Structure formats: C-alpha cells, structure tokens
Amino acid sequence: xxxxxxxxxxxxxxxxxxxxxxxxxxxxxxxxxxxxxxxxxxxxxxxxxxxxxxxxxxxxxxxxxxxxxxxxxxxxxxxxxxxxxxxxxxxxxxxxxxxxxxxxxxxxxxxxxxxxxxxxxxxxxxxxxxxxxxxxxxxxxxxxxxxxxxxxxxxxxxxxxxxxxxxxxxxxxxxxxxxxxxxxxxxxxxxxxxxxxxxxxxxxxxxxxxxxxxxxxxxxxxxxxxxxxxxxxxxxxxxxxxxxxxxxxxxxxxxxxxxxxxxxxxxxxxxxxxxxxxxxxxxxxxxxxxxxxxxxxxxxxx
Length: 302
Description:
By secondary structure, the protein is α+β, with helices and mostly antiparallel strands. The protein has helices at 63-73, 94-113, 117-133, 144-150, 155-175, 179-204, 207-214, 217-229, 237-250, 283-301, and strands spanning 2-3, 26-37, 43-44, 49-53, 56-60, 254-259, 263-265, 270-281. A hairpin with a 2-residue loop joins strand 4 and strand 5.
C-alpha cells in the first residue's frame, strides 16, 4: 500500500510510531530495503521516511511499518499500554498538550492497526480537542472524524483518511511556522511508540523488536537536536536531559553496516537501495533503555 506522506508533519497529528524492551544478550542480523522513487512523491508506508523539520533532514522508520512489526510479534491488543483518551483536560500548557497530542497519535495508530475502531475514534476525537486548544485547529479537517467513523470497518480506508488529514496538517504547520509544536508532537509520538515496543519486548523477548530499538539511535539524536533548537524559554530542559541520558545507553549499542550496491531501474526512473545491518545489544543495556523509556513516558502523561 502507498500513501502520499510527504513529510514528518504527519506526526503533527501524532500517528503511528515504534518501541522496544529488555532481557538477555541479543544479537540480531537484519536486512533492510528502502525504495526511493526518484520522481514519484508517493512514499511506501512500509519503508523509512526522509523528511525535514526546521531545515533539518533526517530519516525515521515508517510509523505503520513499526506498529505492524509489533503486531507481527504480539497478536493480542494490549489496552493496558494505552493512555486515557479522556485525559485531555489534564493538559493545561502548550508543552503538555503538544507532547500528549503525539502520545495520543501513537495510541491512535496502535488501536487502528489492531482494528480496535472504538478506541481509535476516541483518540482521534482527543487529538481534535488538543489541536483546538493548541490553536492549530486549522490543521485538522473538520470532516475527518465523521469520515473516519463511517469507514470504521475498513482499515485501509481509515489509514487513507488519516493520511489526508495529516497532509493538511503538514501544510498548515509549514505555512504558520509552528515548528516548535511539531517537534513536541513528534517527540511525544516517538516516546509513546518506544514505550509500546518496550512492553512488547518484555512480553515476547522478540529479536525483531530488540533490533528496532537499536535502530532508533539516529532518530533519538535528531529529536534531541530539534528540542534544543526550539528550547528558547528552557521549558524542555528536563526532557532534553532525560533524552540525553537515554542517548548514553544507545552509545553502548554495537552497530555494523554492510554496503550493498543499489539497483537502478532506468525505465521507471527508480532506484532501490539495499543495505545489510546488524545490531548487538547487551542485556543490561537493553534493560537500561527500557527503564528510562518507561520513566520518561510516565512523566509526560502525568
């Protein structure tokens, strides 16, 4: 399936991310493949996305890809991992509202992928309320919620409808230069998805999930850089310090990369980039990452 996801601002309505967990020594060899269509703006939702916020370019895993990966390893919907969609009233500052808009977005993605449509609609409604309180209601399609409900029995249609809303959010936030809000929403979604994977790994000891944890080192570094750039009033300092502490654990992960020559299809003007990567995570390092992710996440939703 392909959706026209043109930038990371799809996270400005905070959807689908990833996560991790802890245990014994783990060594994982994984082959990843990225398809980059030179002329086509459509992005395969099963691939990583290259994008920009505030002029900074970076790549993160496709949100749907990551949640699908968790579902591949954990068949049962775990409602206990999710936050309370009725907690909107508890968020009274721009910082808390934006961070938890990202958290709710990850919850929305999780519920949608697991086809719990009642929960998904609840999170979409909460995101709509937060967008209004943040003064970015113009980023939210007023017809989105109704269309989402009407298509509740068609997961593909739900994903398409949401992607349309996120593209509108993309345009709105770019036009209004709301980069600080976008960064906070991205951060909240990333942390919540990391929490999902942490809990999922603890329950499964899945090497696939452990591998995804290690691959988040670059994304974490980018998030820290973005938060520091927009921390003009030092409201994000505590969170930045917590994430930098988490970075220290990621520095202990061993990464290996093997270059594989890309394949070019001149007829279709398309280049397929293939790479082989391996990640080795010691058990105590993984446990430390899990503990810090949980503490950061619980502090944000409180």
